[in-house]
Design a protein that fits this description.
The complex is a heterodimer of chains A (502) and B (212). With 502 residues, chain A is α+β, with helices and mostly antiparallel strands. Chain A has helices at 51-69, 74-78, 125-128, 143-146, 149-168, 217-221, 237-253, 268-276, 317-330, 341-352, 420-423, and strands at residues 2-8, 15-20, 25-26, 30-34, 40-45, 86-90, 93-99, 181-184, 189-192, 355-357, 367-369, 389-399, 402-411, 417-418, 442-447, 450-455, 462-463, 468-469, 475-477, 483-485, 494-500. In chain A, helix 9 (317-330) runs antiparallel to helix 10 (341-352). The chains are: A alpha+beta (502), B alpha/beta (212). Chains A and B meet through helix 8 of A and helix 2 and helix 6 of B.
Chain lengths: 502, 212
């Protein structure tokens, strides 16, 4: 066990230390060593890096680091990325210094049956594969590690925000995959790691084509061409958007959107290349059903998730359904059609407003998206919704006296909150919200046989149907057809109540 | 889901009695427990054990990692390497799924053969049969000074040699086998490609000598 000291190639005289026990953690391209206090790691590239790559790393650790973290709102992103803070060199080997991941990204328990993976990194694969949540699988994860369905919405929101911010800066990650995105369903967070492969279009050529499950079809279909061939497609912002869509699909449905039953070639490798590249086809394509998983070939340990007839992608609700179609039908071979990260973030957040708790205490997922039917039931365990279900449709003022639907609804359940971003369309639910803006302005509860909205902080809530002001501290009953003006302010919304499951 | 079949073909002849056979058993256990920490390996790798002494038999059929259970091995008898290659060929025929117009097949298997002696049967006949099977990679390990590297070289280009058959050396071999399986299952997941040559596996530990 030797403590070694290395020098920054960016800041003269700055040093870092690491413990060399002769057996580093070996990543795909780097050997990783912990600092003595384990607050950071030093990761050395095994291969000598060229001038380009050296320049790219320096830029990432300086210019881009500053623009991401040293400005207003920068703190928020520190938890979202594991970003290199310096570049070092030793014996001609280049290394990067990266803060250690937050503790929540290491398993507290791991497997239900033993401690084999306790303390290991929570790489995405553990949570994207249906086996590890199957009660009959010997190596299933402990229930305390899995979170519930709602946890994965928050995780996907975080990933979308991380990708959105990179793209806003003109960067592409180029290798979004299980290994490069850590997820923690317990704290409902995600962190994008391996930032050192970032690509700036036109400036630095990408050095990897990505990870198979996440490589965009056009990249695979043209990978036989020379890197300088104009028809060759390399990782870019648009291929990140494919990877992001795959990732969201996998974290919500625990199966791959393109891995179905269609055989393209009798040679295994060729078949794989076609299935994920040139001939890629959504397994749930509504009209071309040739890639549907074959019922007799489903692995019982992967059920019900791999059975698309039991849990179709439409269980993710109308907003995500539309985006999955954009990503895997229109945009699969038309990269410009793919939804951008911001659209995913918005759709995920809007979907959480449609979500209902499942009344079955044994339900694994605990939450489901209201399916717009008059007799809603949990698609995962089949439990029907009990009691009435108020649905609030949001309207905005298009012009004086004319209100138009927002395509946004809020499903009510007991102790559900109303927030500022529901009240006013000028307040957008994103990472820029202040702590005050995240405080609820009202809540919903089932009170003496009626659904009511209790006003906590709205100063101009009005029951339009009854023509009555509802001051803070008072409540208003939610009845079928009732209209409520949430705010008189600019951008204030009206909600219209429908009572479902009567 | 395509599987990555892995065959371990282990010599259990009389010369393995004592420390070597105990080290092999321990090595298999270590390998399984290490692979069970890798979600990609759990998803794709399926393991089978074939042992051979005066004759060969499949001790553990191709089994997913999560369900794998090691059974007792005893060392005795001679070194029927040829029979081992025949049994291996038959197992590949019956267990490794080929891609058909109806069903996705498995990846090509990885084969690790370990022996500490000189084959005592007509091993060339076994080899002729084995040659007709398609594998991604065959690694032969000559354990200890008495192992016959010349015949192993005819089976595969990839021959490694262990200087001794003590527990520490054998355990290092299994650590490397496990890293190779891990690397291959991850590679299949991460590039959709099978490992096809020696160069792509992790470097062997210092105690393994590569015979070239």
């Amino acid at each position: 066990m030797i403590t070694k000291t290395v020098f920054s190639i960016i800041t003269n005289g700055r040093t870092y230390q690491y413990i060399d026990n002769g057996e580093p953690m070996r990543g795909g391209m780097k050997d990783v060593y912990f600092s003595p206090d384990r607050s950071y790691v030093v990761a050395f590239y095994r291969d000598v890096q060229d001038h380009n790559s050296r320049e790219r790393l320096i830029k990432i650790a300086t210019q881009y680091y500053d623009s991401f973290f040293k400005r207003e709102g920068g703190e928020y992103y520190k938890d979202l990325y594991s970003w290199p803070i310096d570049v070092v060199e030793q014996n001609r080997k280049l290394g990067i210094v990266v803060p250690t991941y937050n503790r929540n990204f290491f398993f507290q328990k791991g497997y239900a049956a033993n401690d084999l993976i306790r303390g290991k990194e929570k790489e995405g694969k553990w949570f994207a594969s249906p086996k590890f949540r199957n009660k009959q699988f010997p190596l299933r994860l402990d229930d305390t590690e899995l979170g519930n369905w709602l946890s994965y919405f928050q995780i996907c929101v975080n990933i979308s925000r991380g990708v959105k911010r990179l793209h806003a800066a003109g960067l592409a990650h180029s290798d979004l995959s299980y290994k490069n995105v850590l997820v923690d369903p317990v704290t409902k967070t995600a962190a994008i790691i391996d930032i050192d492969g970032l690509v700036v279009p036109g400036l630095f050529p990408p050095d990897v084509i990505g990870t198979a499950d996440f490589i965009a079809p056009e990249v695979l279909a043209t990978k036989h061409l020379d890197i300088k061939d104009p028809n060759r497609k390399l990782p870019s912002r648009l291929t990140d958007l494919h990877a992001l869509a795959v990732m969201i699909y996998m974290y919500l449905l625990y199966r791959h959107p393109l891995k179905g039953g269609k055989i393209h070639d009798l040679d295994t490798e060729k078949d794989d290349l076609l299935a994920m590249g040139e001939k890629a086809l959504f397994i749930e394509h509504p009209t071309d059903t040739s890639n549907r998983p074959k019922q007799n070939q489903l692995n019982p340990k992967e059920l019900p998730w791999t059975d698309v007839t039991k849990i179709p992608y439409t269980v993710t609700g109308p907003y995500l359904k539309a985006l999955f179609e954009k990503a895997f039908i229109e945009g699969l071979h038309q990269p410009m059609q793919r939804p951008i990260a911001n659209e995913w973030e918005e759709a995920l957040l809007k979907t959480t407003d449609l979500i209902q708790p499942c009344s079955n205490p044994g339900c694994q997922q605990k939450w489901y998206v209201f399916d717009n039917s008059t007799r809603p039931r949990c698609p995962f365990c089949g439990t029907p919704h009990q009691g009435t279900l108020p649905v609030l449709d949001l309207y905005y003022q298009f012009k004086e006296g004319v209100w138009r639907p927002e395509d946004h609804r809020l499903m009510v359940y007991n102790n559900q909150y109303l927030f500022g971003w529901h009240v006013n369309r000028n307040l957008i639910r994103n990472e820029k919200l202040t702590p005050e803006q995240k405080v609820p302005v009202g809540y919903f509860t089932f009170h003496q046989g009626n659904w009511v909205l209790v006003n906590q902080k709205l100063d101009s809530l009005k029951d339009v149907t009854e023509d009555k002001e509802i001051p803070p501290g008072e409540m208003v009953a939610l009845t079928d057809g009732k209209k409520l003006l949430l705010s008189r302010g600019e951008g204030g919304r009206i909600v219209v109540v429908t009572i479902a499951n009567k | 889901m395509r599987r990555l079949p892995v065959y371990l073909v282990l010599d259990t002849s009389g010369s393995m009695v004592g420390e070597p056979i105990e080290a092999v058993k321990n090595g298999v256990q270590l390998m399984i427990s290490s692979l069970r920490q890798n979600p990609q390996a759990i998803e794709t790798a399926f393991i089978s054990i074939i042992t051979f002494d005066s004759m060969a038999r499949q001790l553990v059929p191709l089994t997913e990692l999560a369900a794998f259970q090691m059974t007792e091995i005893k060392a005795s008898g001679t070194t029927a390497l040829g029979d081992a290659l025949k049994v291996l060929s038959r197992c590949i025929d019956t267990e490794v799924a080929k891609t058909t117009p109806e069903q996705k097949g498995d990846w090509k298997p990885m084969v690790f053969i370990m022996t500490d002696g000189i084959p005592t049967d007509n091993w060339e006949a076994g080899l002729a049969e084995y040659r007709q099977r398609k594998t991604a990679l065959t690694v032969a390990c000559a354990a200890g000074a008495k192992a016959d590297t010349a015949s192993l070289k005819k089976i595969t280009d990839t021959v490694v040699q262990l200087d001794t058959t003590d527990a520490a050396t054998i355990s290092r071999f299994f650590t490397w086998v496990s890293a190779s399986i891990s690397a291959t299952s991850t590679k299949i997941e991460s590039s959709g490609k099978e490992v096809t040559g020696w160069e792509e596996l992790p470097p062997p530990p210092a105690e393994l000598n590569i015979v070239v």
